[in-house]
Amino acid sequence: MFEGFEKEIGRKDAEAFLKMFSVFCPHIAEELWGWGRGKGFVSLAKWPVADLKKIDKKLEEQDKAIEKLKQDIGNIIKIIADRGEKKEKVYVYVLPKELEMYKELDGIDGIKIFAVNDKNKYDPKGMSKKSKPGRPAIFLE
Fold this sequence. Notes:
The chain is α+β, with helices and mostly antiparallel strands. It is built from five helices and three strands, in the order H-H-H-H-E-H-E-E. The protein has two domains: 3-53, no CATH class; 57-140, hypothetical protein PF0899 fold, CATH 3.30.2320.
């Protein structure tokens, strides 16, 4: 089944994808199922079961931490905007071990990420000292 895809994702994964895809595009999924020599109808096939061993808890926690930081920045910007002020630059200070996790935000919407021990960090108010594990310090300018 799915000769072209087997090298990339494997037969089991291709079948699981088609079963889930059939919810959104049943007609196309049935055609692909038939071409791949699937048995019966894809709409009647047993639904795939999640492999809980493949779930990376650490990655989920990192995603939650990044979302929390985005929310915090948004809330601070809103509070400042309610006062009639406008800040264009956001500086975030994280612990060195957490730098890689938050690095994906660097450069987005004026956000600059620094490790607290970075000698070249921009920190005019000493905000980096307020950073704690899992709680980056935020400074707007």
